[in-house]
Amino acid sequence: MSGDQILQLFAYLLPAVVTGVVAFYFFRLHTKNEDGRRRFLLHKDSQKETLPIRLQAYERMALFLERITLNNLVVRVAPKTKSKNDYENLLINQIETEFEHNLSQQIYMTDECWSIIKTAKNATIQAIRSAGMSETDSPDKLREDILNQTMEKQSPSNAALAYVKKEVSDLWS
Questions:
Q1: Inside any domain, residue 132
Q2: pTM
Q3: pLDDT of 78-92, one tens digit each?
Q4: Membrane-spanning regions, if any (predicted)?
C-alpha cells in the first residue's frame, strides 16, 4: 500500500470515527438524562404515596408527646388506689404502653427525631420517679408534686414537640 492510499483511507475513516465519538457522547448524555428523569418521576410518585403516611406518623407522635406531657398525664390518669407507688407505676405504665403502641412510627421519621422523642419519654419517666422519691405518702400529693414540678420548668415533651413541628415544616421545603 502506498502513502497516498493510506492517506486516502485515513481521510475516509476520520469522519466516521469523529461521527461515532460524537454519537456515543450524545447517546450517553441522553441515557443519563433519561435515567435522571425516571428517577425523578419515581421519587415524585413515591412521595405522593409516602408523604401522607409520614405526616400521619408525625401526627401520632405529636399526640403521644401531648399525652405524656406531665400536666396532661396527671389530669388524665387518676389514681386507682391509695398507694403512691402504685400511682407512680400506673403513670409510667401509661407512658410505656402509649410509646409501645406508636413504636412502628419510627420508620417514617429521622433517627434524630426519634431519638429526641425517646429522650422526652425517658425524661418524663425520670421526672415522675424523682417526684415519687419525695416525702409524700398519697397519690394526690404525688400529683401535686408533679404539677408543681411542671410549673417550675418546661416539660421534656414540649421541646420534643417543637422539634417534631420543625421537622414536619422541613418536609414542605
A1: yes
A2: 0.73
A3: 898 888 899 999 999
A4: 6-27
